[in-house]
Amino acid sequence: MNIQKHFINGIVIPEVVSDQIVVRSAGEGLQLLADLYYQDYDCMILHAENITPDFFDLKTGLAGEILQKFTNFKFRLAIVGDFERYESKSLRDFIFESNKGRQVNFLPSVEQAVAKLSN
Fold it and tell me: Does the model's pTM come out above 0.85?
């Protein structure tokens, strides 16, 4: 796993870059958050393919458990990926509602994630 830094408007936005799943559990999500939080970041970009598929099955409760930790720390998260492939109405509704706010956003590109997190 590597951290790629995006610089915009005087803000540094870290992007987690990996060819593996880096968040398989709430504990791993919290550890990743803590690692970046203690490096003075207050947001991150994470790719959907780096998160366990269980996250996107809302019945598991994993998404809620992980995202609650980000909310508690006021740590903004942009998840980048192709979310059109998911057919679950509840997941689509969850993504739609999340994207109305600033805390957690589901976006199709890194460029859009950088723009969202820099505001």
Answer: yes
Return the CATH number at 8. Answer: 3.30.750
pLDDT score recorded for residue 119:
87
Instruction: In whole angstroms, give the CA distance from residue 80 to residue 82.
Output: 7
Number of domains forming the structure of the chain = 1
Helix axes 26-37, 62-72, angle to 10 degrees: 20
Find the domain containing 100 and state its range: 2-117
Q: How far apart are CA 34 and CA 11, in angstroms?
A: 19
